[in-house]
Amino acid sequence: MIVTIDGPAGSGKSTAARGLAERLGFDFLDTGAMYRVVALCCLERDISATDRVAVTEAAQTIDMQVRDGHTLMNDHDVTAAIRSPEVTEAASLVAGIEGVRDELVDWQRQAASEKDIVTEGRDQGTVVFPEAECKFFLTAAPEVRARRRQQDLERTGVTVDFEEMLRLIHERDNRDASRNVAPLKPAADARHVDTSELSADGMLDLLEKVVRERMAAQRD
Predict the structure, then answer these.
(1) CA gap 117, 29 in Å, rounded
(2) Are 71 and 112 in contact (CB under 8 A)?
(3) 185 neighbors 126 (Cβ within 8 angstroms)
């Protein structure tokens, strides 16, 4: 079974996907980390995130591995490095490049082949796995999402002004929703979940219940 969890930045989809995969005993596919790796590679090589040809060529040269909660780029652990504000901003730009998405979508489909998997991103239920058996689209108020991202960064020792983070959230939302390639939008058959007032456990309880009901229905 493939479970997709899409949504905007800070909606809780990464927390949800990791936790749900653990509860179900499924594999977890962190697609957002993949785009961040491409962004980090471009920053390190002084490649503009808007240079479509150069960014695509860079993506094709990366040896990327995402496993056991760690992200490796060319055998270097970049788990912490890809969470910086600079990488986050660049990742949003490179994610709109068709060549990059083609490269990573192929990798994502190969990674999920013949597995029970929970995958999160912005186009998992619409583009990458349109036939997934269970789809979710998570949302939350912009202020809630900005606070979550701010707290995530603070846990890594990075201090970011709340108003600046809120501005970045709005910019990211607009860019993701309006891009020509795989824009952020819910799949027609996705279950919408507003996480603004949900605790992490409450969110996981809800998602797990839906998935297990779907699994039971498939067995009958």
Answers:
(1) 7
(2) no
(3) yes
Beta bridge partners of 119: 4, 29
Using DSSP's 3-state secondary structure scheme, residue 194 falls into: strand
Phi, psi of 109 (to 5 degrees): -65, -40
**Residue 72 DSSP label:** E
Tokens 């919408």 correspond to what residue? 192
Amino acid in the structure at residue 219: R
- pLDDT values of the chain reduced to their tens digit, one per residue, 220 residues: 999 999 998 899 989 999 999 999 999 998 888 999 999 999 999 999 999 999 999 999 999 987 777 899 999 999 999 988 899 889 989 988 999 999 999 989 988 888 999 999 989 999 999 999 999 999 999 999 999 989 988 888 888 899 999 999 999 898 888 888 888 899 999 999 999 999 999 999 999 999 999 999 888 7
Q: What is the DSSP string of 83-148?
A: GSHHHHHHHHHHTT-HHHHHHHHHHHHHHHTTS-EEEEESSIIIII-TT-SEEEEEE--HHHHHHH
2-214: CATH architecture: 3-Layer(aba) Sandwich (3.40)
Question: What contacts 172, CB < 8 A, 6 or more positions away?
Answer: 8, 9, 88, 92
At 65 the three-state DSSP class reads: strand
Cα-Cα end-to-end distance for the chain: 15
